[in-house]
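Re: the multi-chain job from yesterday

Posting the exact lines I submitted so nobody has to dig through the queue logs.
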Amino acid sequence: MAEIQHSQDGEIAKPNTAIIWKTFWILSGLTALEFLIAFTMPANMLRVGIFIILTIAKAAYIVGEFMHLRHEVKFLIWAIILPMIFVGWLLLAMILEGGSIFTMLQ
Amino acid sequence: MATATSSEQGIDWSGGNLPLKASWGKLMMWFFLLSDAFSFSALLISYGLIRYSHPAYSGKVSDFEFSQAYWPIPERVFEAVPFLHGVPLPLVFVGIMTFILIMSSVTMVLAVEAGHRGDRRDVEKWMLWTILGGITFLGCQAWEWTHFIHGTEGRGATDFYGNVIYGANLIQNEYGPVPFANLFFFITGFHGMHVTSGVVLNIIIFYNTALGIYDRPDRKVDEGASRYEMVEKVGLYWHFVDLVWVFVFTFFYLV
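And the result, structure tokens for all chains:
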């Protein structure tokens, strides 16, 4: 056991976790807000829009702070974000396609 | 010449520099996660298309009954909580699951932070909490699947011949159209599989940390990486699993 203790060179720094807990409270708050909206607002396109905006905000905090992407090189950030923007486009296109399949079947 | 000097410090990219200022392993993890995001996107896009090609329920939420004629309202499908049989608590259990997963993501990022400081005891502590959170989430999902497969006591939809359907599987579904159950099994199942492999990876990292492998002075690390970079790479995967759940929660349970 003794040699394991010696492997540290010098003092261990104090934890610096303020930003982590701040992100945690933001994520919890946004989730609580989603619940509130789910039970107080009638289901319509506005509600869906609010949910999508809140989800993207949560995703931005997870990817930006927890996964540290915000602090990476700009090229790496765009290499990850840009393909996902096109995926969002495909999602929108396929939802509209689903709507037209529905009207065709009526 | 430059290669020779950097090789003395550790494994480099063999070109003498560090593309995108990230180590090789971390960059590959990022691109793996991007490709994995495509797989989940494919499932969620299919969900969007299939859902909007079915009729939506248009009446009041309180009058809602299960029927195969329209897509069900998720808050009326997922309203059971363990030990509270017969009490309708819409989305409460899935809210607890979401909280557990966010919490285990926080303990993971605390483990990564401890790794940056080279604090092995803290890494061990936070990795154990993360593993515990992952296992708890999987247990919750197992319960939810069991309940979903068993179904309600005769409140379900009727089939083509007018018989009441009990529970759900890939060919019959008491909650609504058959694709609803199929998508539930595929999306939450694929996510649960990712959580399972994440827990296995976390256990391996905990084991390596506890053995002191990352503190060995003769261990070579990627250029630009800390000694505990493995914690960071597996952490990326674990946060990604949490991220996917954020989207599944919105698109499957809330919208």
